[in-house]
Amino acid sequence: QVQLVESGGGSVQAGGSLRLSCAASGRTFSSFVMDWFRQTPGKEREFVAGIGSSESSTRYADSVKGRFTISRDNAKSTVYLQMNSLKPDDTAVYSCAARRNFFAQYLYWGQGTQVTVSS
Q: pLDDT at residue 102 above 90?
C-alpha cells in the first residue's frame, strides 16, 4: 500500500508562485508514473502534469505549459509541482496520483491541497 500526501498549497496573488509536494510512503515510489490533477467545484478533474519513473519523460496540459514544472526526487519519494505566473484560473484542489505506467489505471491518490490565486 502506498500513501500520498500533498503539501505546499495556499493563497497567492496572480503572478505569484507556489511549489507543491507529494510525498509517498513505501519503497516502490521510483517505479511509479506520477501525475498531478486539479479540480474545482462543479468541474471535472483535470490533468495538469505527469512524470515518468526516470524523470526524462514529462507531460503538461496546454493550460500550464511554460508556467508549471513537474519534477521528482526518488531518494525522497517525492514529486513536485513548481507553479509560476499563477492565474486565478489555476485556483483548485491539486492532487497527485500514482500508476505503474502511462497506460495503467491509477492505483493511489492523495487527499489534495488547496491552491487559491487572487486577482
A: no
